[in-house]
């Protein structure tokens, strides 16, 4: 009898711990656990919340072709943190592995962003060095956002040694024979290190944003035209996987000033939903958040738009004849950005609610 009671007690404890763990892992979407992506629509696609997208303690992978605004997007994320009074304790780290960061941070993203962002100098040269630096950042115990731009720019220590060895052979400084190709070490090392690093990251208060470049997928029988380097490790360990696709160039006076982008959330461990949104990115400005929200409300016919047609917001913002450009100008001049975000968030989630399967629950 005593044995049965003991067994029941153990089972009860296991259930209680499991329940507690489940509650702990479902973080409330607040400034304590999340940061904004810099795009209200992307935030909603990532979490269902208009103000927060990337989760602290997790890794996100942002993938796209050159010129799609990947770097501008993550810099906008850093700017959102830098200007959020609830996130003054969050460290901002930018690892420019490509050695290509030429943006004037203060001009584009404000003095606070420039002052709070630590741009690593020199940047990481290989995946081992990146892992070491990330570990040091985690060990501090402070909330942080670590951006790696990009994963493709990293080699491995083994590959670096191979390159040096081959160079000496070609220059006649070594009598060794060429050992052929290199580059096979990176996927294996990436998998090993991301497993360890993401485990540490999960127990930290930091977010890791890794940028990846696309490349043609040569895998036989694959339906995907594009892939990324580093094997399957990035996809496996990412909480969010976001693809940015260039759909058009924005020009003025026959000069490119920005890009029209389609953004696909292809992996989402927060909501489980895969969603697509659109926004414009301007080279001298960043993500056009307000413009994308206005276009979303017009596309969903919440506002009746087109030219100078009446735009009806049900009393939430404006109700008069006004063009798209003038509407954006008015929102900015009157400081109505947060009201607009709340409207878009409400509309987005009303649509999401309408998409739910209306069936009797199988498991009450």
Quick recap of the structure?
The protein has about 375 residues and is an alpha/beta fold. The protein has 12 helices and 14 strands.
Q: Remind me, CATH topology of the largest domain?
A: Rossmann fold
Structural class: alpha/beta
- Average pLDDT number: 84
| Shape summary | globular
- What distance separates the N and C termini? 33 Å
CATH C-level label of the largest domain: Alpha Beta
Strand count:
14
How much β-strand is present in the residues?
15-25%
Number of domains: 2
Helix content: 25-40%
Low-pLDDT runs of 5+ residues are: 1-5, 20-24, 218-223
Number of helices: 12
Largest sheet: 10 strands, mixed
CATH architectural category of the largest domain: 3-Layer(aba) Sandwich
Q: What's the order of the H and E elements?
A: HEHEEHEHHEHEHHEEHEEEEHEEHH
Instruction: Return Rg in Å.
Output: 24 Å
CATH superfamily descriptor of the largest domain: P-loop containing nucleotide triphosphate hydrolases
Describe the structure.
The protein starts with a helix and ends in a 10-residue tail after the last helix. The longest helix is centred in the first third of the chain and has 24 residues, at 2-25. It is 40% helix and 22% strand. It contains 12 helices and 14 strands. It is globular. It is an alpha/beta fold and 364 residues long. The model is unreliable at 1-5, 20-24 and 218-223 (pLDDT under 50). Strands 3, 4, 5, 6, 7, 8, 9, 10, 11 and 12 form a 10-stranded mixed beta sheet that branches. Strands 1-2 form a two-stranded antiparallel ribbon. Strands 13-14 form a two-stranded antiparallel ribbon.
């Amino acid at each position: 009898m005593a044995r049965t009671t003991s067994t029941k007690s153990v089972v009860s404890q296991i259930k209680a711990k499991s329940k507690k763990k489940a509650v702990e892992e479902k973080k409330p979407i607040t400034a304590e656990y999340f940061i904004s992506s810099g795009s209200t629509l992307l935030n909603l696609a990532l979490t269902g919340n208009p103000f927060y997208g990337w989760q602290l303690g997790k890794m996100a992978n942002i993938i796209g072709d050159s010129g799609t605004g990947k770097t501008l997007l993550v810099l906008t994320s850093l700017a959102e943190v830098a200007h959020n009074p609830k996130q003054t304790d969050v460290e901002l780290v930018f690892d420019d592995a490509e050695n290509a960061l030429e943006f004037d941070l203060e001009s584009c993203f404000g003095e606070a962003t420039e002052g709070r962002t630590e741009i690593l100098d020199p940047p990481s040269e290989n995946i081992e060095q990146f892992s070491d630096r990330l570990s040091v950042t985690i060990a501090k115990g402070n909330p942080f956002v670590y951006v790696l731009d990009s994963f493709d720019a990293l080699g491995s220590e083994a590959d670096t040694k191979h390159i040096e060895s081959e160079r000496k052979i070609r220059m006649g400084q070594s009598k060794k024979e060429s050992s052929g190709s290199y580059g096979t070490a990176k996927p294996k090392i990436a998998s090993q290190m991301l497993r360890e690093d993401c485990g540490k990251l999960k127990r930290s208060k930091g977010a890791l944003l890794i940028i990846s470049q696309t490349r043609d997928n040569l895998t036989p029988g694959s339906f995907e035209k594009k892939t990324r380097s580093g094997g399957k490790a990035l996809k496996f360990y990412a909480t969010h996987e976001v693809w940015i696709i260039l759909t058009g160039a924005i020009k003025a006076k026959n000069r490119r000033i920005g890009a029209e982008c389609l953004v696909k959330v292809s992996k989402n461990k927060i909501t489980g939903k895969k969603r697509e949104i659109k926004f414009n990115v301007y080279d001298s400005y960043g993500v056009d958040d307000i413009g994308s929200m206005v276009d979303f409300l017009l596309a969903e016919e919440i506002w009746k738009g087109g030219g100078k047609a009446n735009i009806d917001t049900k009393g939430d913002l404006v109700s008069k004849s006004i063009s798209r450009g003038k509407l954006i100008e008015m929102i900015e001049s009157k400081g109505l950005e947060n009201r607009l975000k709340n409207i878009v968030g409400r509309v987005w989630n009303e649509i999401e609610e309408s998409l739910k399967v209306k069936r009797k629950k199988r498991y009450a």
